[in-house]
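Long-time lurker, finally posting.

We've been working with Arsenite efflux pump ArsB, ACR3 family (Nocardiopsis flavescens) and I want a structural starting point before designing mutants. I don't trust myself to interpret raw outputs, so I'm hoping someone here can both generate the structure tokens and explain anything notable. Sequence follows.
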Amino acid sequence: MPLAERLQSLFVALAALAGLAAGLLLPVGPAAEHVVLPALLLMLTAVFVQMDTARVGEVRRAKTLVAVSLALNFVFTPALAWALGAGLLGGEPDLRIGLLLLLVTPCTDWYLVFTAMARGHTGIAAALLPVNLILQLLLLPVYVLLLGGRAAMVDGATLAESVLLVLVVPLVLALVLRWASNRFMGARLRERYVDGAASRLVLPLLYTAVLAMFAWQARTVLAHLGDLLALLLPLAAFFVVLPLAAVGLSRLLRLPDDQKVTLTMAVTARNSPIALAIAVAAFPDRPLIAVALVVGPLVELPVLALLAQLVRAPAPRPGPVPRG
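Top reply, 14 upvotes:
Generated this for you. Predicted structure of Arsenite efflux pump ArsB, ACR3 family:
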């Protein structure tokens, strides 16, 4: 795992602090507002252009893992997110919506890295990626409207338009770019130049969006710093419950070690960049929702790094040495 990815939590925190300083000391807030959403849309396009939908067929080789993953991600997790928000953030509607947006969006990028680090089945993990993306695209408005309740205070059309903008537009752009580069450059050159450039752009664009977000909303963050700290308890509860559920079900169903790793990472990692982009688009007048989402990666990435060590699959045994 590259050093830049290992230090992602640190860089997100530094970007947030730099944005806060800029927003409090300089009159950059109005300009920064216009940077956040474009940076996130470009980042998502760069993520999606690297996605190989041809690997979806690999899910057929692990039907049990896929079924459990979908049940945990799209049935159990939304119910848990609602319970944590109602129980621990009942008086903070914007934080409740921020928590809900974060927890109901399964990861579509960095969980692959941690799966590989822990010797999980990367083929199945990659095959789950487009499945998770399509399902969250369809279900996210339903979750927010049904589970958000009065805290959501957004109509279905506005939310659907935001999801369309944030997920469908980058996905279509990525598919067109992938098709064009395959046609005119060939698969090998596409992987080298297009996929390579896209992978190098993702993190700088994320840091740019975070920096601009905090510069834009510096005074909101300062006024609600204690409220943001209240998110740590529900986030900690989530990042304990989901790995335990995944490991327990893996043992109950006797999944192979590499599939246990894959399941654990696929249901623990969250899609904070997508959730952040949707929050900015759907709730432009409630900035605390978007700001709350930046707290997620600061907790999540260290947890995933720790999990990669705790659930690491044993190294394959070397085969017998041929005689002769």
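Before you design anything, note these points.
The mean pLDDT is 81.
The radius of gyration is 20 Å.
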